[in-house]
């Protein structure tokens, strides 16, 4: 759910070094943060295939922040290599939860890669990807999106589960190098912070328009079995329009309503009914799948290792 780590090399060494020095000075003298606990909320939902349906909403909410939108617009390869970009981002997210000792290393890798992302946003303000406010917002978006999407794709969280989810999400933030002082520490503190960002910062950036549009050119997937790729390329002009409409439908529909309203994204009662019908099918069928189909490979392997270690 972080901005892509493939980008051009435009850099301001003096500013980058200043950020690095501040990182060093502000580093908490704490032990390496551990990932969320096995069998916690995130252990159950982050690697579930339904998480793939939630990620576009979280990404759109991230890049609605002017600094993040500008960074992704200028540095990301999401236009030229969307499938590779998505695969790398998904692997990173899964490592935060299921990576064990690799989780903290992945967090350090991301911070290092983001040190060269800087520029000027749409409001004329200088930004750097590791500035505390935008860096924390990128991570913060996961909590409201998980909470909202779960109401359609699974069972709504109880108050206790929601509180546990937030505590685990804070733990993931520590893996990513987000200081506790830069993130609300309880759900009660989160919502005023969230509403303030919606009101004061978010806008319909160029990247949000692309992610919620249906006419952006998207190359065919270059992953998957070799025999299938030529067929996909041949059929892609026919497959892309309905896929783009479905992506827009899920991106806007699984975004929290107050975020949709802040960005001026349209959502009709008819679309809401369609999303509820789609959610009913998903939350009925997915729990019936065997684990090898329900969980993404990295998550499935971690869960299997954990079960084996307990035996």
The major sheet is characterized as:
2 strands, antiparallel
Query: Overall 3D geometry?
Result: globular
State the end-to-end distance: 34 Å
> In percent, how helical is the residue content?
55-70%
The parts where pLDDT drops under 50 for at least 5 residues are 3-17, 24-29
**Helix and strand string, N-terminal first?**
HHHHHHEEHHHHHHHHHH
Number of helices: 16
Overall pLDDT confidence: 89
Percent strand equals under 5%
Number of domains: 1
Strand order of the largest sheet: 1-2
Rg for CA atoms: 19 Å
Find the count of extended strands (DSSP E, 2+ residues): 2
Structural class: mainly alpha
Secondary structure topology:
Layout: H1 13-26, H2 41-45, H3 51-63, H4 66-75, H5 82-98, H6 101-114, E1 118-120, E2 126-128, H7 132-140, H8 142-153, H9 159-175, H10 187-200, H11 206-211, H12 228-253, H13 257-263, H14 269-285, H15 291-294, H16 297-310
Antiparallel strand pairs: 1-2
